[in-house]
Structures are given as C-alpha cells and as structure tokens.
Write a structure and sequence with these properties.
This protein is an alpha+beta fold. Helix content is 35%, strand content 23%. The protein has 14 helices and 19 strands. The strands form 5 sheets. Strands 1, 2, 3, 6, 7, 8, 9, 18 and 19 form a 9-stranded mixed sheet that branches. Strands 12-14-10-15 form a 4-stranded antiparallel sheet, covered by helices on one side. Strands 4-5 form a two-stranded antiparallel ribbon. Helix 2 packs antiparallel against helix 4, helix 8 packs antiparallel against helix 9 and helix 9 packs across helix 10. The longest helix is centred in the N-terminal third of the chain and has 23 residues. It is globular and about 85 Å long. It binds zinc ion. Zinc ion binds next to loops.
C-alpha cells in the first residue's frame, strides 16, 4: 500500500507531517485498504448479474465520510448497473490534473468452477482468494485508501488528482472510460493518466527482474472471413464448397507471419531485458534491439508466443461456423479472426493483408464493427504510444529504489488491451503501473 502513496507524493509535492504521525497513518491506511479490498470483492461486479453501481456507491460513501465535498464525488453512467465513480481531490491548481483509473468490474466466475465462493473474500495461508483479487480490486482499494489517507493528512497537491473507478473494462457494452471521455470529458480531463490495470513485475522463478510501466498497447480488432455458396444436396457434391474455401483460406493464414515491427518502446524493452537475462535469450534480445534488427535473433525470439506478439501484428482464427444441415452442401461458412495490431499500423491495411493471405475471391474479409455503450459503431483506430515523462519515471524509480533497490523500471508495450487505449486516443497519455504487489500476474487486459 505504501508505494502508491510514496509516488503520489513524489509527483511534485512535499508533506509537512512528522514521521511518527506518518507511520501511524501508514498502518491505518493499510488497515483501511484491506477493509476496502474485502468490501469490493464481496460485491459481485460481473457483466451478467453483477452491479458496478453498488461498488461505486460503497466507495462514494467512504469518500463522503472522509470529508470530500459532495460536488467532488460523482456517480454516473449509461445504465443503472454500470455507473462509474469520479472523485476529484482538490489541489491548488498550479498544474493540470493527473487522472488515476481503475476498473471495478470483474470477469465472470462460475461457482462450480471455483473451490471457494468467488464473491466471498477469503484470506488463507498468506493469499487472498476471490474474483478480482488480482484484476483489479486490489488496485482499486489502493487508490481509494491512498486518496483518503492523503486527505486525512491534510495534503494539498499542486494539481487536482482525479480518481475514476469504472465499468465494463472486461467486456460489456458500457465501457466507463469511453463513456466518460465522450460525455463528460471535463470531469476526467488530465495532463496524463495512471492506469493500475497495466504494467507488470516481470519475474524469473519468483525473483523480480523489472518493474514494467505500460506506455503502449496493441490494438484489438476482429475480422470476419466469410464464404457463401448456392449449396445443394450433399449426395451430389461439387468441389466448390463454402467450408472448403474457408478452411483453405484459414490454413494459409496459419502459415502466415506479419512483417517484423519494432518501435522505441519495444526496442528499449529488448535491450534492457537483454542485460537482465543470460545465454541465447539475452543474445537474441540484443540482436532484436539492433538497428536494423538481426533477422536470426528475431526468428528465434518469435518462437515464443509472447515475444512473437511483441514483434508482430498477430491474427488468429478464434471462432468458426458453417453449414445448416448434415445432408446439405453449406451455403455459408464463417470464421472470426482476432487481430492484435501493432501500434501505428492501420486496421484497413491489416484487412487488405488478410484478404491477400486468404487469396480466394470466394472468401470475403471484412472488419467486425464494435459498438459503444449506446450502440453506436466504434471505429478501430491506431493507438499512439505514450511518450515517457521524466517526472513520472523519476517518481517511480525513486519509489522502487526504496522498496527493491536496483530493480530497473522498463517501459513496455502490452499485447492485450486496457482502458489506456481510450485515453491515448483521446490525447491523454496513459501509463500502466504495476500495483499487484505480492502477486505473480499474467498479462492483463482483454
Ligand atoms: Zn483488468
């Protein structure tokens, strides 16, 4: 809990509180964070039957009790179950605000798949159990507890600190960050944002190798491969078959690799990580970071699915349907192809590449339209990386040094997608910061 507090302070302020009072405050904040964490886990916030509004209201009650003004606490959203919470911590206005974001919703959890009730917080043998303990109610609890702690210590920042706890990061049609940016940008407008849903501690056999700050992410896009055919009776088949056309196109996709791509962030990631690893892996990372990259090194690294995804746009078949009766020739065959597009590459260019790879005029390739909270089509657009800010990296490095001396801070590109993309597209640089202290976390995002 302490480290978030420390770098909140380092973002440009000092605090005139004696150290004995601070350490007492720290214990109190830890207790508070634990209590909030438990409260949030016990509120089901899934898309199907959960309620994000209940969680927003529970947190709002805490802010009111802590002395935040009513006008600085807003609960709003496009539907009754998906309301977001926005809290403004007033500073002296010398600089533009910083926005902190976290999502309150969690992925579905079926009771029969769990050994314990996923919506009942349990602490056992030094671990926390419950849906959202890792992604990301621990982060939400840290943010709420720190805002309340700073308030109780009389802290006055030189800029407003805004907290946005939001809905539908994990899916659903009411993404809170998207909705807030479109409907109430002034509530959350900031110089930059910190997203506790991104960033990782990379580890090797439990030992921390680096603290990663997520400054870029790939773009999510779905494409449909479709083959149509007049059909006919299966007792007199012709070679012109919708399922065969589609499956041959998908086989060609299976054998295709998008061209190598590398940007400032991934090049830096490989060159920094090379110094933290050994042997062939280290040599390959060094090779990939060269300008131009060493092709052999790139090929080696690309055998690992994670590094492959860092080095290329990837597209993979994820769903399949076709035919309408066991004894009829198929009139349709369709596949969903999910792509993770390298930042800066145009989604339409990816579609054209897929069309070329499918290499069959009887297989059409179209982009699947995503929709926003209010049902409007959402264009898939390229997401720019966020340039690293010295004020932020310095604050984080200082904090990391106090907790894990020598642990390097490295900017990364996330292969999944987080709410950072909406902010980056809207011109608010976004940085994903590891908050899952004590957890070995996997790649986050949808
Ligand atoms: Zn998440």
């Amino acid at each position: 809990m302490r480290h978030i507090h420390a770098w909140l302070l380092m973002l440009g302020f000092s605090l005139a509180v004696p150290s004995a009072v601070r350490s007492q405050g720290r214990e109190e904040a830890n207790r508070l964070a634990r209590e909030i964490f438990e409260q949030l886990i016990n509120i089901n916030t899934t898309d199907s039957v959960g309620n994000v509004t209940t969680a927003s209201e529970a947190m709002a009650a805490r802010f009111r009790k802590a002395g935040f003004a009513e006008q600085d606490i807003v609960i709003a959203g496009p539907n009754e179950r998906k309301k977001n919470l926005v809290v403004r911590y007033r500073g002296n206005g010398k600089r533009k605000p910083v926005l902190f974001v976290g999502h309150l919703d969690v992925v579905e959890a079926r009771r029969e798949d769990w050994s314990l009730d996923p919506f009942q917080f349990v602490e056992k043998d030094g671990f926390f159990y419950g849906r959202g303990t890792e992604d990301m109610k621990s982060g939400d609890a840290l943010l709420v507890a720190n805002f309340i702690r700073l308030k109780s210590e009389g802290f006055v920042p030189d800029r407003d600190l805004i907290l946005g706890l939001t809905a539908d990061e994990e899916g659903g049609s009411s993404n809170g960050v998207d909705w807030l940016l479109r409907e109430h940008r002034d509530w959350i407008d900031a110089e930059y944002s910190i997203n506790l849903d991104g960033g990782e501690f990379e580890r090797d056999k439990g030992k921390r190798l680096m603290a990663a700050i997520q400054a870029s992410e790939k773009v999510y896009a779905d494409y449909q491969f479709e083959s149509l055919n007049p059909g006919g009776h299966s007792s007199v088949p012709s070679p012109d078959n919708a399922i065969y056309h589609l499956s041959a196109a998908l086989s060609r996709l299976q054998g295709f690799t998008f061209p190598l791509e590398i940007n400032e962030i991934t090049r830096n990631y490989f060159s920094r990580t090379a110094t933290l690893t050994a042997g062939q892996l280290s040599a390959d990372m060094k090779g990939a970071a060269q300008q131009p990259p060493n092709q052999g090194a790139v090929q080696h690294l690309s055998k690992d699915p994670y590094f492959n995804s860092l080095l290329h746009t990837t597209c993979v078949a994820t769903m399949l349907s076709g035919g309408h009766a066991p004894n009829a020739l198929p009139q349709t065959a369709r596949a969903n192809v999910n792509c993770r597009i390298f930042p800066g590459e145009e989604p339409e260019a990816v579609r054209k590449t897929l069309e070329r790879v499918a290499a069959d005029p009887k297989v059409s390739v179209t982009m699947v339209t995503q929709t926003s909270a209010d049902g409007k089509p959402l264009p898939v657009v390229s997401v720019p990386p966020s340039p690293l800010l010295p004020e932020l990296t310095r604050a984080m490095e200082k904090t990391i040094t106090t907790m894990w001396p020598g642990l390097p801070l490295v900017a990364t590109m996330s292969t999944g997608a987080t709410d950072g993309k909406y902010l980056r597209i809207a011109g608010i640089p976004s940085y994903g910061v590891a908050c899952r202290r004590g957890f070995v976390s996997s790649e986050s995002g949808t």
